[in-house]
Specification:
Organism: Deinococcus humi
Strand content: under 5%
Pfam families: Polysacc_synt_3
Order of helices and strands: HHHHHHHHHHHHHHHHHHH
Shape: globular
Structural class: mainly alpha
Largest sheet: none
Transmembrane segments: 20-40, 52-72, 84-113, 119-141, 162-184, 301-324, 330-350, 362-381, 387-412
Distance between the termini: 43 Å
Number of strands: 0
Radius of gyration: 21 Å
Helix content: over 70%
Subcellular location: Cell membrane
Protein name: O-antigen/teichoic acid export membrane protein
């Protein structure tokens, strides 16, 4: 039934099949998350969810840097040997970066002690290593158009996360159970992705051209990394700001809203984005086909924005009935964020076009502008209630997502076949 919906809605042939493969399996996992959320919400307190939210926010920010963005470059080379060297570089970066983080955790713990239990801070290096490895391998699977495998790993991830969080809740219900489930959910499926790798990966690690390959794609750590950090900061700083200013309970309400409303939409956006990038990486010179694919997907995703906003308006009532009166405020937050999620679905699914078109400088400027606007919202509304702050944040982010999409479309209209190393 899920596959039939996507087949009729998305259109396209190869692109449609890849989207269905990626999103189909992942959607099943997301259904598991949604169905078990009422029970999990009753096993843990809003403060526990707030601790998880701050942990996930910090991990998400670090995750942008863990591969030095070489993971994004995996789809770029014209031959698999060079792509394999890029993958090896991304994996080495993940190991080294995680070890560095482990050495500075003792310094980090006192700084974030009010935001999460100490044990969660000590789990940051482990979560970063496992998720960084998965992230790099996932892009190799995207390059190989292994949408079915990616979908399978997403199902495994959701099942692992829910299973451990339920077990932790039944065993006492602390933030540690939520955190361990989150780590398992992010890292599960690594083994399945490893099977896609050729045995020569281990030989590639000592390849004499490894350094020259890293230098060839240096624009990713130099340009895409700052851009990615600005982008993720705009997304994750609100959680940290809310936890610090309004308490872990309010951060927990925000986290549940993100889990229930944002999770499925981000899943769909990621699936469309990965399938679209896979198509673009095959033939970057066929601009007519690329533009048709872009416009076709954009029209269909735009249609989804209206029911998303309608569902958001009903969230206060839905959350109260499903999760209990303790979580009504979470439903109000979900309603406020629905406009942002509707525009984010469209933007995130197609704005990665700028990577394929080698417009990394454009991305950096856009992400830096968005971060500046978010920081301005914090500065202006920090003395207001969290409702006013989140509403202002949602409006600013919605405008930025629409602008991002329009600029990606503009870049595609003026597309010149990519020359690696220039932007």
């Amino acid at each position: 039934m899920m596959r039939a919906f996507f087949a009729s809605f998305l259109g396209g042939s190869t692109l449609r099949r890849n989207i269905i493969r990626i999103v189909g399996g992942a959607a099943s996992g997301q259904i598991i998350v949604l169905l078990t959320s009422p029970l999990i919400a009753r096993l843990y307190t809003p403060a526990d969810f707030g601790s998880l939210a701050t942990y996930a926010s910090l991990l998400s920010i670090l995750l942008v840097a863990v591969n030095l963005r070489y993971d994004l470059a995996i789809i770029r080379p014209s031959n698999d040997d060079e792509a394999l060297r890029v993958l090896a570089i991304a994996l080495v970066c993940a190991v080294v970066f995680s070890l560095i983080l482990l050495t500075i955790v003792p310094v980090l713990v006192p700084l974030i002690s009010t935001l999460m239990p100490q044990i969660l801070a000590w789990l940051l290096p482990l979560g970063l290593l496992l998720t960084g490895i998965y992230q790099a391998l996932n892009y190799w699977a995207v390059r190989r158009s292994e949408g079915g495998v990616i979908g399978q790993t997403r199902l495994v991830q959701s099942s692992a996360m829910v299973g451990i969080q339920l077990l932790g809740g039944l065993s006492g219900g602390t933030a540690l159970g939520l955190g361990l489930g989150y780590i398992a959910g992010q890292a599960a499926g690594v083994g399945r992705l490893f099977r896609l790798l050729p045995m020569r990966l281990w030989i590639v690690l000592t390849h004499p051209e490894l350094l020259s390959t890293a230098l060839k794609y240096r624009q990713f750590p130099l340009l895409s990394l700052p851009s990615g950090l600005a982008n993720i900061a705009a997304l994750q700083l609100p959680t940290l700001f809310v936890a610090h200013n309004y308490g872990l309970g309010v951060a927990g309400w925000l986290a549940l809203a993100q889990r229930i409303l944002g999770g499925p939409l981000d899943l769909l956006g990621a699936g469309v984005s990965q399938a679209f990038m896979s198509e673009l990486s095959r033939d970057q010179s066929d601009t007519i086909t690329i533009r048709k694919l872009f416009d076709s997907v954009a029209r269909r995703l735009a249609v989804l924005s209206f029911p998303i906003i309608l569902i958001g308006m009903a969230c206060p009532t839905i959350f109260t009935l499903v999760f209990g009166p303790t979580w009504r405020e979470s439903g109000i937050i979900a309603a406020l964020l629905s406009m942002m999620y509707a525009s984010r679905l469209l933007s995130n699914a197609l704005s990665q076009t700028l990577i394929i078109l080698d417009k990394l400088k454009w991305m950096f400027c856009l992400d830096l502008l968005r971060l500046s606007l978010v920081l301005a919202v914090f500065a202006i509304f920090n003395s207001y209630t969290y409702i006013v702050l989140i509403c202002a944040y949602s409006v600013v982010m919605s405008i930025s997502y629409i602008a991002y999409f329009m600029i990606a479309r503009l870049a595609l209209q003026h597309h010149i076949p990519m020359i690696v190393g220039k932007s």
